[in-house]
Every structure is written in C-alpha cells, then in structure tokens.
Amino acid sequence: MRESLGGYREYFHSIVGFFVIENHLLYTTNGLVSKVTLEEMWATSVEKVSNVLKTQTSYCTDSGLIQEIKRLIMLFSNTLTNYGYNISHLTQALLEIREHYTEVLTQRCFHEFQEIFKEDNYHPLQVVNLTEYASVVAAFPFKDPNLEKSAFPRRFPFSSMVPKVYKQVKEFVRSSLWYTEDLNLTQTKIDEMIQKSTNLLLTGTLSGCLTTLIQKPSVGLLELIQITLNTNYLECTNIYLEEFITSVTKSSVKDESYKAELQGKSMFKDARAEAEEQIYEKLKAKIDESFDLASYDWTLNEPEGRASDYIIDLVAFLQSTFLAFTNLPLKVATTACAAACQHINRKLMYMILGDEDVRQVSLGALKQLDLDLIQCEQFASSEPVKGVDSTLLIECLTDVRQLLDLFNQCDFSAYFHDFGERTSKYPRVTPASAIKLLEKYVIAILPLDSMYGPMFSG
User: Engineering a disulfide at 50: which of 89, 109, 278, 303 sits with its beta carbon 3.0 to 4.6 angstroms away?
Assistant: First the structure.
C-alpha cells in the first residue's frame, strides 16, 4: 500500500463497501442495524483509518503519488459524507499528510538546487538570438533597456542558476498550493501555509545549498564573484515572489493579521556576505600560493634590476581578477583590494622579520624587496577597480614601505630624532621591528667591514 496507488484503492473500496451496505441496511431493514451501533463502528473505524493513512503516506517520497493519494482520500471522504458519516478525522489527517507532502517537495527542491548549482558554469548567461532572450526574460523578472537594444550575443549579468532557482521556487509554490484545494480552508489559512512553507524553503533548504556551494574548496575566486552577483539578483526577486503568491492565492501576501512576508531578502543578503568573505579568503590564499614560490637570495650583493617573477605573476593575476569586480558593489571591491594589499604587506613583513629561517638580510636583498614592493605599489596606484581609492590601497603597504626605506636610505638618525613625533617619516616602524631587521643586516655584513661603517654613519 505504501508505494502502490492500487493498494489504497482496494483499501478504500473495502471500507466504503462495508459502510455503504450497513447504511443501506439501516434504512431498508427493520432493526437489523441500529444507528447508534453504526455510528460507534464508524467512529472507531475512521480513527484507525486516519492513523493508517498518516502512517502509510509518511513512507512515500513521491510528491506525485501523494497528490493521487490525496485525491483518493477526498473521493473517499466525499462519498462517506453523502451517506451521513462524520469525516473530521479524515480532514485532520489530510492536513497532517500535507506537512509530509511539503517535506517531500522540499527534499525534491533540495536535489534540484544541487543539480542547478552543479550544472552552472558561473559565467554571465549568454543568449544568441531573440528567442533565447525572450525565454530568459519570460522566466525571470529582469529588465535592462540597454541590454534590450544591444546586439547578439547578449550577456545577462547573472549566470544560469538565477532564473532556474527562481523557476524552481515558483514550482514549489504551485505544488504547495495545489494540495490546499478542496480542503475547505480559509484564505488566511492558505496564505499562512504557503508563506510558511516557502519561507522554510528559502531560509532552510536554499540557504543551506548556497552555503554548501560557497564553502566548496573547488569553487574558485571568479565563481565566487559570480555567485555574489547572483545572490544580488535573487534578492531582488523577493518582491516578485510575493506578487506571484498573491496572484496564485488570490489574496494579499502582506496581510497584517499574520504578517506573512517572504524572508528571502535577508537570506540572500546573508549568503552574499558569506560569499564576499570567501572571496577575501580566496584572494589571500592565492597570495599565499604566490609567496610560496618566492626564492630570495638573502645574501644578494646587488638587486636583479627588476621585480621578482613571483611578484610579476601575482600582480598580473590580481589585475585580471579585479576586472571581474566591475559589477560588484564598490564597497566589496574596495574591501577585496584592500584585503589583498594588506595581505601582501603582511607576507613581505613576515619574510623580512618573522621567518626564522631567514637569519641574515643583505642590503642587496632589501633593494630587491624594494623593487618587488614598487611593483605592488604601482598596482595599488593603478585603480585596479574603477572607483577604488588608490591612496587607501597604497596605505595598506605602508608598514613594509617605511621599513625598507629606513634601511635602504640608512636613515636611522631621522628615525631616532623624530621617533614618537607626528612629523616622523617612519611612524609605522616599531623599535622591535627595526632592531630585528638590524640584527639580520649586521649578520649579513659582518664579513664586509667596508659596509659596516656606512650603515651607522650620520
């Protein structure tokens, strides 16, 4: 019976047959069946039938089968109602079965969302003709006059997951609403049910799928940027989903009596914030990978005359990556650029001061680091993302810049003279940092007495 509609039919037929015959005997015979006895039999039976239906349907994982079962229960109930039997237990059972039906729909959506995310290439959705374009805008509420006028192929700012997710949520609403038909529920109750189930889908199922997607190690930086953009467009659909539910339920979504309001907007904001945080972490991880390739000769006499290869490659990567930040909010782009520059600053400072394997640092090595830092500063001052304050980015590299200037210019007299003053040229260089690098420098020049003097001159 659990997986067979025929089993339910046979079950209902046997019960209907018995009670219809008993009802016929009640009214066509003289005392063979009493009304009290029949009502007691039905009261006992309908409670058991309701429990059986709730138990059996709880094992069903096919929403289509549950819909057919619901239809049979309605036929069963209406038939017995016509013979005067009380079906309140069956009505209650239908409402409880609806909860399981909603769980099944939600689980189906869970798998659909996973498949949608798996199939997406996380590039802007591209259409090559008017038919394809019309298909997308018909499925998803997006309007851009400039895009409408542009030549084909046209590129939407979001990837394919956006219209697919929106369509899936609408299908969930339709399927949820279908079950409420013919249950004699008030419009307010129907609205409450649809709103509650949709909110759970958005804040539970879809939110969980997005979090899993964002946290996948295999999702790269460019994919995260596109996901961030996608959540922005999905957030904007919240009002359209509310309007859609209003139209299909023929009621007001925002009825103040029960404060029914979709919570997708806040959920998508949370998902976007998480994606943005992952962008910053991925950027730092990529910078870490680049610095792992660094190979300095800390006893170098003269610099190479150009920036190190790993720095050149890192800057090229950052330049190409930040081109994808164009459509992101300026605040996100600024934070990402600043995070990248701050991390470069920390990595360079660590190599100079924190790496215990680096026991000596020659003046030539410091000048090579200076060339590498200049490359990073040029990147920071180039406005890697339009609108980002270059001054802020250069400021993020100040720690290592001041430390290198202090040593490369042998400017210790100015450092000590102005230390602690507002006019100091090296306010970001702490005594501890200066002493630590000085110790490494001294070790490097000890064999070279001719270089020892100039270091402390002045």
Answer: 89
Q: Indicate the SS3 state at residue 422.
A: coil
Is residue 19 predicted with pLDDT exceeding 80?
yes
| Pick from 93, 6, 98: nearest CA to 46 | 93
Q: What is the structure's pLDDT at 254?
A: 47
- Answer whether 154's CB lies under 8 Å from 126's CB: yes
Q: Which amino acid type is present at position 302? A: E
Q: What's the pLDDT tens digit per position in 304-361?
A: 899 999 999 999 999 999 988 888 888 999 999 999 999 999 999 999 999 989 999 9
Peptide bond before 153: cis, by omega within 30 degrees of 0?
Answer: yes
Q: What one-letter code names the amino acid at 303? A: P
Neighbour-count burial for 344-372, b at 16+ CB within 10 Å, e otherwise: bbbbbeebbbeeeeeeebbbbbbbbbbeb
Q: Are 337 and 388 in contact (CB under 8 A)?
A: yes
User: For the chain, how many residues are written?
Assistant: 458
End-to-end CA distance of the chain: 97
Supply the pTM of this predicted model.
Answer: 0.82
The residue type found at 69 is I
| Strand 126-127, strand 154-155: pairing | antiparallel
